[in-house]
Structure formats: structure tokens, C-alpha cells
Amino acid sequence: MGGGAAAVSDGGADREAMLRRWGSAGWAYVRSHTHPETGLVASTETFPFVTLWDVANLLLAISSAERLGFERPATVQARAERALESVSRLPQVEHEGARLPNQFARYDTLAPADATGASPGTPAWSATDIGWYLLATSWLAERHPAWRRAIEASRASWNVEPSLSDGAIEGWRADRGRFHEGRYPYGVLASAGYRAAGFRVGTEPRLEAVRLYGQDVHWERHGLTTAEPFLLSALLEARADAFGLADSWDAIARVQEARAAATGVPTAASETPLDVAPYYAYFCTVSGHESAPGVPFVIVADGRPQPAAGGLQVVASRVVAAGLATTSSDYWAQLAAAIDPLVCSPDGLSTGVYAVGAYPLRVRDLNSNALAVAFAALRARA
Q: Which CATH class is domain 15-381?
């Protein structure tokens, strides 16, 4: 990958060896960034907060480390139990009968926080984060029966039912009130978690489709179709497949590959933290934002769409890991080989590289590293 619009390398890569290398780096990051008392890892090195979404991915990494032989079973059990015990102590918000963990908490003290890690932040819960935690821990409880008691204890004090309204999941913020969180695809993933925990979630997304590079990509108005919910569903081997998320991952991956071939700009787009303002962006395969509905490859940051041709396009390392683990396309192997020197070091993975300019992000985050471990284990199970 040179200067200007980066090109995909012509070289190949052994998938298993590359994934294991990335998985080893990801696990080194998780180990070195785990707080000794809480067992949690901050969302990024810059912002010392944690969400239930982060904790779910951390637990998947812990499970995968055992599968890959990075840790002994007893050590893995102890790590999982420490993290789960901390979930039971997360600060909670109570509103209209609901009693749920605050959306953000400090990873070290467990104090309520905001998206920068500053305390106390605005009281809030995220139904999306809750749903992904419920789904991931349901899946993990089946694979680790010894974890089941700690998983159940982690949410024993929650009252989840009031976060549902007429079968739809809803979030809440003290400065905003209640709001719908069930939109495709994040809401579908989260709703699957609510169902896995025994709650009745009956709403269906109002899907529309756009034809991109020979593939039908679904989207919903006011939703953000990034790769994240699809690759996570594929990671859980279609557990969340009520609306075809795992199957749709194949289409998302093909569209990204085709865009790279058509434009010369390598594409592995999803949501990612950034090392420049606005510090977080959703690189959508299709936007459902009200000002850009149905538009492909839109970056949404600070609640506003931005041109995908801008400097915020990121080749996300976790999307590349997902492509390596779940497809047979040479594109993902070549892309992994191209970015490997830029993102992978023995002590962790960078979030990715900027597609235009081909320079690595100066930020490392839990989710990229945790999912590298998880996808390495998924490939090992295949």
C-alpha cells in the first residue's frame, strides 16, 4: 500500500497463519490492558470507559484464547468470572421500572461515565448494547457451562422488561427520554439477544434494498448498515439470523471487495474509533440517515453524513479479520498481507489504516483486538 489511493497488494497470505498471528497480537493487547481488579479493558487506549458491547467482545476473546491455546482453562475461567462479577457491579440507572447498567462506566473504578470516560456523565441505557451482551453471553453459556452461573449473576439485578415497548427495544437518556433502537441491522442483532434471554420481541424491520455491485444490500430508514452487526452474527455462526444477518455478511463482504476493484481504494468498512476529530465514525455500506437515505458508502460522524471520499475512510482491521476467517476470497488475504506491517505488532493491533494515504490509525481499541482473537478461533474451528 503506497501513497495516494492505496492499492491492494498482489501477494497472498496463509489464512490460518495470518489469523493466528493477529489473534496472538490481539490477545497480547487484551492481557496487557486488563485492569487487575475489574478484569475489564477500556474501549480504547485514549478513553477509559467500557460498555456492555465492549464486555461482550472481551468475553468472546477470553473464550477464544482457550480455543487457540493461548491460556489454560483455569486461567480463562478466572478471567471470565472476574469480568462478569464486574458487570454485576456496574452503575445502574432506574427509570419507569427499568433497572439497567449505565451505558458508559469507567473500566477501572466502575463509576458512571460519559463517552470520554469522564464522570459522572448523563444517565442512560443502550438497548443495543444490552441486546448484544445478552446474545453473546447466551452463546458463551452454551460453550462454557461453567460460566453459566457467573453469566446469570452478572444480570441478576437487572429489570430488562421495561426497556421494551410494544415488542420493540428502546434506549433512554436523561436528557432525551426514550427512543427506538430496533432499526436494522443493529436492532436486529440486539433483538436476537433479548429473545435469547426469553423476552418477547415482535417488531420487524421495514427493509428496503439497494443493488450494489450485483448484490442486494438491505437497509432501514434511520438505521446505519455498517458491517459490524453482520460480521458479529457470522462470528456466532448464525445465532442472530432471524433476519438473515449472517447470510447477509457474505453480500456485505462481496460488495466491499467489488468496490475496491472498481475504485482502486481498498475497502473494509465498519464503525471505528479515529485518532482525529470526531474520534468515532460509522462507515456505512448503505446509509439510512435521513439526509442520505439509501446512499452507499457514507461516513456518519457526529450524527451527520460526510462524503466517503474524505479522509475518514478506514480499512478496519477487524473487518479484514472477519473476511479472512469467513470467506475464501483472495481479496481479504491480499488485503491482510498489505496492511499487516502497518497494523500488527506483537503487543496488539491498530484499529486499521486510512484508505487514502495508507497510514495506520494511531489508536488501538478493545473491539478490534478482541475480535481478531475471536475470528482466529472461528477459523480454527472450521
A: mainly alpha
